[in-house]
Amino acid sequence: MHVPDGFLDAPTSVATGVVAAAAIGVALRGARRELDDRTAPLAGLAAAFIFATQMLNFPVASGTSGHLLGGALAAILVGPFTGLLCMAVVFLVQCLLFADGGITALGTNIDLMGLVTVTVGWLVFRLLQIMLPKRISMVPAAAAVAALVSVPVAALGFVGLYAVGGTVDIPLGNLATAMVGVHLLIGIGEAAITFLAVGSIIAVRPDLVYGARRVLAQRELEVRPSTTTRSAA
Known about the structure:
Elements: H1 10-34, H2 39-54, E1 58-59, E2 65-66, H3 71-78, H4 80-98, H5 106-131, H6 138-165, H7 172-204, H8 213-217
Antiparallel strand pairs: 1-2
């Protein structure tokens, strides 16, 4: 979904850049509440993992391919504010060093693949946590559903931007059908990768997953009676 230069007109690209800059500013302030001695190292690892995984494409349909977006995964692993910062760093490096997405479209890519996927993924994940049983085993499943939903929503976001500032006259109905259809399939792959990644960390160190902290905090302390008895002196 990396948007290249020239797909959107200058006013739209400037507007998305302003939105991206504002979102990063808010995230910098919000990340102070999320980062601690556990989250900070994981944030770097999450950004590196998402960057590496985005370089790997998997076939989708009709000769098209897709790759992990990672917004929902980042939000669940390290928190939504820190997750957005991780995504922004990934897109900046991809743009400047690998020409993956245009420089003038950097704000657009941060908004669509970062801000939208992080926000939608986190909101869906938190809603599922409220509705589902408060068990640690439900965290990877909720993360997978959140990732699945976030991808086609981001695709619809691109359609909306193209309706405002697209540079080529393409029927919006056809564009929406193609974007949502392909990215729904990509979302399935995104859900699988997110489920495996979150599940792997949950199995070893659930306390490292930001999205699992509420579940861990609600666990009742089990007090087992002592199996040994002491005789009175």
